[in-house]
Specification:
The complex is a heterodimer of chains A (about 140) and B (about 800). Chain A contains four helices and eight strands; from the N terminus they run αβαβββββββαα. Chain A has about 140 residues and is an alpha+beta fold. A five-stranded mixed beta barrel of chain A has the order 2-4-5-7-6. In chain A, a hairpin with a 5-residue loop joins β4 and β5. Chain A starts with a helix and ends with a helix. Chain B has five domains: about 200 residues, no CATH class; about 200 residues, no CATH class; about 160 residues, no CATH class; about 100 residues, no CATH class; about 100 residues, no CATH class. Chain B is built from 20 helices and 24 strands. In chain B, the strands form five sheets. In chain B, strands 6, 7, 8, 9, 10 and 11 form a six-stranded antiparallel β-sheet that branches. In chain B, strands 15, 16, 17, 18, 19 and 20 form a six-stranded antiparallel β-sheet that branches. In chain B, strands 4, 5, 12, 13 and 24 form a five-stranded antiparallel β-sheet that branches. Chain B is flat, with a radius of gyration of 33 Å. Classes of the chains: A alpha+beta (about 140), B alpha+beta (about 800). At the A-B interface, α1, β1, β2, β6 and α3 of A face α13, β3, α15, β5 and β11 of B.
């Protein structure tokens, strides 16, 4: 076998290996109901804030404890517990993506990266946000 | 309706030039195409003249478009959406340009401007390659022009016109304010929404232009490669294109690293790189471009790897287009913090990729067998072989990163629901650490190999010293560097140590090669210098990341909730600093001493955090700040502050501040009639009435027997057994009763003495969350972060030297 073919084979083998390893760290998007089925497994949820129930964040007592309620499009609701600060402007966001796992009735988020809010600069390109600026101000 | 006070002329001029530039680049494309396929020199020359004129007119039109936008913004014509949405009257002048590239249209315009300038340079320098290369450049220009032309073709929107009026914006047209003819007098039209205050930083002035110059210049090597196939001169272009490949790699790399520096300096992402999809999207084309650069060099010296060069250069430009799609289509909306929102141009963005990708790959495959290559394989001891391997490693890395980044696209295409898991950074790092090892070692040894073949004895003799030095240095670093990053297990820690060795080896070997291999011929040493910089970067990345240390680990106890469920949970990364209370924070004592707002517009709150090194006693202040958002948006953004040492940075930002929201304090006093030595519980412990003192005369109060005063001495014991004293007081003066409450700040507790009822003193307590100013702080140490920036600068410097060298040698 020629050297080039050997290199190519090794290359393909490694490429497949890395992609397989990538699959190992992949999670899936779930609904609140299906996340409850997979208790303890790390999942992503596409949810919106449930404003009907209170958020709890008391930084003077514990800056690393924050809870809120979220609902998905199917109408299921869950309490979400975070072991970090309340992201600034959190209450103003609507749809959010959260990464964590369901434990009992609570959805636990360990990492700050587990709540994805948009970088503020990008809100402005959102026509809905711009419209808001026009109407209120 | 006739609206009053609108300045419509600039918009009309602007839109005219938008269409003009589109038409001119169309003519340029066509004329250059004709010149390329012309059989006789006369018609070629005349087509070329026409094409040049068209391209130059296009450049003028672009200049006019740009000037018009500046004119509109600097005159505050808020009837224009661009001015209204992205600027305001109080916009500091240095951000006048920056607010133009805040939005999609403006950033496309920036790309167009750069591509115009590159085209003008190519017209002067590319000689016999001018016609085919400029055909592709002009065509690129044409495609970019459609992005901002803003016309409708049978209900399909093509591009976004930056000269639209607010009232012409989609969804705005029926807003009630436009029912009055003089709507411009309405307050919300008197000033713009302003330029995002978080972005108001010098990086926004320099990072986007450099990054877009990188994007724009990546088309040049692609155009040369295509021209080579088109003119069936499959290899001649590689010499002329080499400085361009170097230039594109240099500028794109600089742009990406500037983004990293910005993220580190000014944004609270807690680091310089987080493998965010948007970061990856511009990093991946760079990796492939660098792969192409190395195979192109190998081809220039040996005749090997030309096919690979074609493949890499085509792919890197396609990836630039793909990056454009990823960041602007809104498809990353659920995955990235920086991606733009869908602007309804997705089809156009996809076409933008396909229109270059399909012809590019089709031509490459069709002509593959005609592209010259050498039957005989590279030798094992040849430089070109290992350069090729290095390029493959780079390509492999890019393949991995782009696949992981493209999961949202795959989800859309195949209806799957995949996403990179909870620990995004580690998912990438655990693969990239191996890439770093391989690249480091390859970078170290490959320079010592000669092209074609190397005498083994000489090779090993030359490599022996650098290898020994590299080994010794890296063993010393590993032994005494305190690298104990075991969060992901021993295997990963070992990998980090090997990675550090690879970085050190690369730096040492390349530094020594400048003397041993090139006899100090410094003007040709650009590659060695760039590789040396790369090695230093690797060391900086690995050390700062693996030794990154959280200072603000919440160990104070006073603020921990007493919920056993939370005990084992990490990370408790924020520490609460009460005003003027010295708090234990890692190697430091931290005190929040106050805040002020001293910038001109008063929208930045600086928090003064005094840190004292526990060992050396050194005192310094950090001023992390919160920037109030621009009008039209709400809230604040966090802006970190750092204290720089040569070997580390202390990095901090405010997570929460008590003055952030004006809370209404609804807590109330609760009263307890208690006798001496009686106890009362509060939420975090209990308090006991120690004794009452008539007419006290002590350090706090000075009463005599002529007064009527009663002080209660209250002992407060919190759950962590800390004891506090509170001494509330009542006294009578001028027939009136006065109360003097006492506050225990750390317990958020206010204690009053209300009076005495039936012989029992009435003690009132109130627990309030807002009595004492405080901040929640996050603080890190980034050791050796400066190596990353130093390495970056050295690498850029090496690139620039190489460009100068190759331009000079390509003329000979």
């Amino acid at each position: 076998m020629k050297k080039f073919q050997l290199v190519l084979l090794v290359f393909i083998a490694i490429a497949i290996a890395t992609l397989v390893s990538l699959m190992g760290s992949i999670t899936t998007y779930e609904t609140i109901a299906s996340a409850r089925q997979k208790e303890g497994k790390s999942v992503k949820l596409y949810v919106h804030l449930d404003h009907s129930q209170p958020m709890e964040y008391n930084p003077s007592r514990d800056p690393n404890f924050f809870t809120f309620y979220a609902a998905d499009t199917l109408g299921n609701k869950t309490k979400v517990v975070c072991n970090f600060e309340k992201p600034i402007d959190f209450e103003k966001s609507d749809a959010i993506v959260i990464t964590g796992s369901m434990h009992g009735q609570e959805f636990d988020i360990k990492n700050r990266d587990g709540i994805l809010l948009k970088c503020p600069s990008k809100y402005k390109d959102d026509p809905a946000m711009a419209k808001k600026g026009l109407d209120q101000n | 309706m006739n609206y009053v006070g609108e300045h419509l002329l600039p918009g009309q001029i602007g839109h005219f030039f938008l269409i003009f530039s589109f038409a001119a680049s169309f003519v340029a494309t066509l004329a250059y195409y004709k010149a390329t396929i012309a059989k006789d020199p006369d018609s070629e020359a005349s087509w070329k003249r026409m094409a040049r004129l068209a391209f130059r007119l296009n450049a003028l039109a672009v200049l006019a478009i740009f000037s018009t936008i500046i004119y509109i913004i600097s005159n505050h014509y808020f009837e224009y959406n661009y001015a209204w949405e992205h600027s305001s009257k109080s916009l500091p002048p240095q951000y006048l340009l920056a607010c133009i590239w805040e939005a999609q249209e403006g950033s496309f315009l920036l790309w167009i401007i750069w591509q115009c300038i590159l085209g003008l340079v190519l017209i002067r320098t590319s000689k016999k390659w001018e016609a085919p290369v400029m055909t592709i450049m002009s065509f690129g220009q044409l495609c970019l022009a459609t992005m901002i032309i803003g016309i409708y073709v049978s209900n399909i929107k093509i591009g976004i016109n930056p000269f639209l009026l607010v009232r012409q914006m989609e969804g705005f047209a029926n807003a009630p304010i436009f029912n009055s003819a003089d709507y411009l007098k309405i307050p919300q039209m008197q000033d713009g929404q302003g330029f995002n205050s978080l972005l108001q930083n010098y990086w926004v002035v320099i990072h986007p232009p450099v990054l877009f110059l990188g994007f724009a210049s990546s088309i040049v090597p692609f155009a040369y490669a295509m021209a080579g196939i088109w003119k069936k001169d499959y290899s001649g272009w590689t010499r002329a294109a080499l400085p361009w490949t170097l230039f594109a790699a240099c500028v794109l790399g600089t742009g990406v690293m500037m983004g990293a520096a910005w993220a580190y300096e000014a944004l609270s992402f807690g680091g310089f790189w987080s493998w965010d999809p948007v970061e990856n999207a511009s990093f991946v084309p760079w990796l492939v471009l660098v792969a192409g650069l190395h195979t192109q060099l190998a081809y220039r010296s040996t005749g090997h790897s030309l096919r690979a060069t074609y493949f890499f250069l085509i792919t890197s430009f396609v990836l630039v287009l793909y990056a454009t799609f990823l960041t602007r289509s809104g498809i990353l909306g659920d995955a990235s913090v920086h991606a733009f929102v869908d602007s309804g141009m997705n089809l156009q963005l996809v076409l933008f990729i396909l229109i270059f990708m399909i012809p590019g790959y089709v031509l490459f495959i069709k002509h593959y067998s005609k592209i010259p290559h050498i039957e005989k394989e590279e030798r094992g001891y040849s430089r070109e072989f290992w350069m090729f391997i290095g390029s493959l490693v780079l390509f492999l890395s890019s393949l991995f990163i782009i696949t992981a980044t493209s999961l949202p696209v795959l989800n859309k295409a195949f209806g799957t629901k995949w996403s990179v898991g909870e620990d995004n950074t580690f998912a990438y790092n655990r693969i990239e650490i191996f890439i770093a090892m391989l690249l480091g070692v390859l970078t170290a040894i490959t320079q010592y190999l000669k092209y074609k073949d190397t005498d083994k004895k000489i090779f090993f003799r030359h490599l022996a010293i650098p290898t020994a030095v590299g080994m010794v240095v890296s063993i010393l670093v590993s032994a005494f560097g305190n690298i104990h990053f075991d969060r992901y297990g021993t295997g990963y820690l070992v990998a980090i140590h090997i990675g550090i060795f690879a970085g050190i080896y690369a730096a040492v070997a390349n530094a020594m090669y400048i003397w041993t291999g090139m006899n100090g011929k410094i003007q040709a040493a650009g590659a060695s210098i760039a590789h040396f910089g790369f090695g230093i970067m690797l060391i900086g990345i690995l050390l700062s990341t693996s030794k990154k240390e959280l200072l603000s680990y919440n160990t104070t106890g006073i603020n921990l909730p007493f919920d056993p469920k939370n005990k084992d949970k990490d990370p408790l990364e924020n520490i609460t600093l009460l005003k003027n209370v010295r708090t234990d924070m890692g190697h430091y004592w931290a005190t929040f001493t106050g805040e002020d707002s001293t910038n001109e517009t008063g929208n930045i709150n600086y928090y003064h955090i005094r840190l004292q090194d526990k060992r050396s006693g050194e005192l310094f202040e950090l001023y992390p700040n919160l920037i109030k958002a621009t009008k039209g948006m709400e809230g604040v953004s966090q802006n970190p502050d750092k204290h720089h040492y040569w070997d580390r940075d202390i990095f901090s930002y405010i997570q929460y501040a008590s003055n952030l929201e004006k809370q209404s304090d609804t807590s109330q006093f609760r009263y307890f009639p208690i006798s001496e030595k009686d106890t009362v519980f509060y939420s975090n412990g209990y308090l006991m009435l120690d004794k009452t003192v008539r007419d006290p005369d002590n350090d706090k109060y000075h009463f005599t027997s002529a007064d009527t005063a009663l002080m209660a001495d209250v002992l407060i014991v919190s759950r962590d057994s800390t004891k506090y004293h509170a001494r509330p007081l009542i006294y009578v003066k001028d027939d009136r009763l006065f109360t003097v409450p006492d506050t225990v700040f750390t317990q958020n507790l206010i204690v009053v003495l209300k009076g005495v009822e039936e012989g029992k003193p009435q003690i009132g307590i109130r627990e309030s969350s807002s009595i004492l100013p405080f901040v929640s702080l996050k603080a890190y140490v980034f050791p050796q972060i400066n190596l990353l920036w130093l390495g970056t600068l050295v690498m850029i410097f090496g690139f620039v030297m190489s460009i100068i060298w190759r331009v000079r040698t390509s003329r000979i």
